[in-house]
Design goal:
alpha/beta, Aldehyde Dehydrogenase, Chain A, domain 1, Aldehyde Dehydrogenase, Chain A, domain 2, 6-stranded mixed β-sheet, 15 helices, 18 strands
Length: 465
Amino acid sequence: MKDAHSPDRAMTTTNPATEDVIDTYPLMSDDEMTSALEACHKAFTDWRLVSHEERGKVLKAIGAKLRERKEEFAALMTREMGKRLQDSRDEIDLCAAICDWTAKAGPDVLADETRSLQDGRKGVIAKSPIGVIYGIQPWNFPAYQAVRYAIANLMAGNGVLLKHAEICTGSGLMLRDIFEEAGLPKNLFTVMLIDHDQSDDLIAHKLVRGVTMTGSAKSGSIIGAKAGEHLKKTVLELGSNDAYLVLEDADIDLAVKTCVAGRIYNNGQTCVNAKRFVVADKVYDAFVEGYVKAMGEVTLGDPTKEDTGLGPMARKDLRKTLHDQVEKSVAKGAKIAVGGEMPEGTGYYYPATVLTDVSPGQPAYDEELFGPVASVIRAKDDEDAMRIANDSRFGLGGGIFSKDEDRALELAKKHFDTGMVFINHFNLATPEMPFGGVKDSGYGREHGGFGMTEFVNAKAIALPG
């Protein structure tokens, strides 16, 4: 059995802006992990019998409690992973909005369906909760990543486990406390302080009925295989290198302004950040001129300061990986238009960077750059831009800039091979709309009611006519 109190059985959080240690948390022993799972399952056996309306009241209360503790929670997230303080506040607002929308929409989404069968019998479809759902979540949105799947599954009547990224352990624990302060039954949402080997054991346990994970495609493949080995359903939201098309009739000023925000939001560390900018030849020079200038004006600094445009990356190794991708792209023909130099001094900072002459075979074209580095790709025309956008193993989000919104809508519906498309704007997630991708960006959907039905038993019940 693993000893939770051994010095090497602990997790440490570090402020990426100052490199100071924030806190240390002991890992669970195997017995503690199993006991926590069993307690969550026990809480589920009661929660599953609570009405949708009563569950909704608790979720509404969670939203109110998140707003009440917004400044405290936002400050913690900024300390743990370096996002700008205003971005942290926005994240809490989004989480509260998810609680509110789910509480309101949940009873209708999860209501029984009645159908008249062809042989005269009556059919009832009951959307029944299935048990404990295990979530493995990353660090880039310490509150949102957990809220996104947890609130949907709590509304559905399931129990929820969270294995959060090590660097935002404090945020995961604060979220648990907020849930319980708002009235959620104790143990129904449980934070698991465990390592990867223990996580595999947890996936295999009979009381875990589903697994959801957000992270890289490589990690998703491993988790999906492990869950599949035990016949557990999964929802996987993985990485992407989202393309934003600047078509020949685009409003260039709008495109430049939006594409800067889309690339550096959350310090450039978002699965649905705008990452590849595919620009039609007719407007390429105008876009690049404006975009390079605007990215060069982004201020790098303390994420707690209001005038900071870009904070540090979350970890030192992530910054090194990003810089290596930039250098390898340059070695294969890309050009640095602005940025691209590793800053000296304290903190894991990296400047807003623009690469041009980006082409296949370069990391800037083929891979996800998880940081504030933009890849600009020249397309012959609008049709070629759409081809390049789809020339990716990923397909999470993307955007189209065009003054002809009807045409852009047709391109989005019929030709863009991705899960989400934003026309003439940039966005991350909306409670009312499905969130998820295709290809190596994963499968399954969250938000928009879809997340509430991913882990339920659509139970078919037939009665005599």
